[in-house]
Specification:
This protein is of the alpha+beta class and about 425 residues long. It has 12 helices and 16 strands.
Length: about 425
């Protein structure tokens, strides 16, 4: 219908910018339908503003030929990328497939919100990929807004046959869910190397199988992908529109959840490096997942998650281990802080003293306290910290006992006796050697 050229658009003074110039072919210029469809493309596309949709700059007519100047995207189409990788026995990585789905859904979300605009031709040929991973949805030439003059009548199918939705093949009225089906076919093709009905060469047979949903599930022809990715593609490829996602936002959120659940970084960085510019032209580099040429449909044995840096790898087990480690460090720090703040914590003595021996109070203990160490008959060492209350010269001590060795058994436990405090040190009653006071 149209031809696209690289051109320079002159602005103010000597300022210019490179553009993609789309010119309708001369054999179609005399057709009123094609002319109006071309103008409708400009009217609808000029209202779109999204980082994943090409921008339109200018529209006009010269010598009976209509043209429009669009944003020039430095790169190639995804069909070129997929075809080149397939020839090398490769495909896009798992995060690359998820990134294509997420970014294309974002573009369709913006288009569908613009007066019910339906793209009608979502396919790898209409998705451009730049070297830095930027993805752009192009060619709204056959799109139809719900408010236009209904130039595309019910019963007329337009678009690429291999990416038709069932309702599009039957010439029914379309909405945004038709684009989601086409996106599901696109993801199916990018993962497996073929569309679901590519084996059916005859158009009528292909349409018959399409409306009945007779194709092999993606997990059968391309095992090894994230389980959630199969679920998303399978729901997008439902025959009935009401069984698909209600809108592009719901499908995008589901793909983002799959990427998060599998620990993959799905974004423009996942697509960077597939396309490189060399001597003014673009080529596809072998940045995909390697596969044996003879068994392209078999799943990759290596997860593309291995391409992530170790610092960016995220798993639930790693997160739990990190939380446990952090809590352990906090607990250890609190214990050390309490030991440093509490001067009354008794430290076990490396040697025991005879019964009745009294240790002089250390400089770190208050003058009114003394520490007494005694040895029980069973060999247990008992350390007693006794304090003297002001104004009281007799009565049970208010100290506390800390066992630094195993307690004696009930048969060996000594009889507890009263202790009296006089002055700064406790007074011990006479006792036989080896008996705990």
């Amino acid at each position: 219908m149209a031809e696209v050229y690289r051109a320079e658009q002159s602005l103010v003074g000597d300022i210019s910018r490179p553009v993609a110039l789309k010119i309708i072919r001369s054999e179609y210029s005399g057709s009123a339908d094609f002319r109006e469809m071309f103008l409708d493309e400009v009217r609808t596309a000029c209202t779109l503003s999204h980082p994943n949709i090409v921008h339109f700059y200018e529209v006009g007519e010269v010598d009976g030929l209509l043209y429009m100047a669009m944003e020039l995207v430095p790169g190639v189409s995804l069909s070129t990328v997929s075809r080149t990788l397939l020839s090398r026995g490769e495909r896009l990585t798992d995060e690359g497939l998820l990134a294509v789905g997420i970014l294309t859904c974002a573009a369709l979300e913006a288009a569908h919100a613009n007066g019910g605009l339906v793209h009608r031709d979502v396919s790898p040929q209409n998705i451009l990929l730049a070297p830095n991973g930027t993805l752009k949805l192009i060619d709204f030439g056959i799109a139809k807004a719900a408010t236009n003059r209904n130039l595309t009548h019910v019963g007329t199918t337009k678009g690429k046959a291999g990416y038709f939705s069932p309702e599009q093949a039957m010439g029914r009225r379309l909405d945004g869910r038709s684009d989601l089906f086409s996106l599901g076919v696109t993801l199916y093709q990018l993962a497996s190397g073929a569309t679901p009905l590519e084996a059916n060469s005859h158009v009528s047979e292909r349409h018959a199988w399409l409306v009945k949903g007779r194709w092999a599930p993606l997990e059968r022809v391309c095992p090894g992908l994230p389980r959630g990715f199969y679920v998303v593609v399978g729901r997008a490829l439902q025959v009935r529109p009401e069984d698909r996602y209600p809108d592009a936002a719901a499908m995008r959120e589901e793909l983002e959840a799959v990427a998060l659940g599998t620990g993959l970084l799905a974004g423009p960085s996942s697509l960077a490096g597939y396309v490189q510019e060399q001597s003014g032209s673009f080529c596809v580099t072998p940045a995909g997942t390697k596969r044996p040429r003879a068994s392209f449909a078999q799943g990759s044995s290596e997860s593309s998650r291995a391409r992530l840096p170790m610092a960016l790898s995220f798993t639930k087990a790693g997160a739990a281990l990190g939380v446990v480690t952090t809590l352990g460090l906090v607990a250890a720090g609190l214990a050390a802080w309490r030991l440093a703040r509490d001067p009354k914590v008794a430290q076990p003595s490396p040697s025991t003293e005879t019964v009745g021996s009294v240790k002089p109070p250390s400089s770190s203990q208050p003058p009114s306290a003394a520490v007494v160490t005694a040895e029980s008959p069973s060999g247990a060492t008992v350390t007693t910290n006794s304090e003297t209350r002001p104004g009281a010269d007799s009565g049970p001590s208010g100290g506390e006992e800390e066992l630094v060795a195993p307690l004696p058994t009930s048969s060996e436990r000594p009889r507890k006796e009263n202790r009296r405090s006089v002055g700064a040190a406790p007074v011990l009653p006479p006792a036989a050697k080896g008996q705990v006071p």
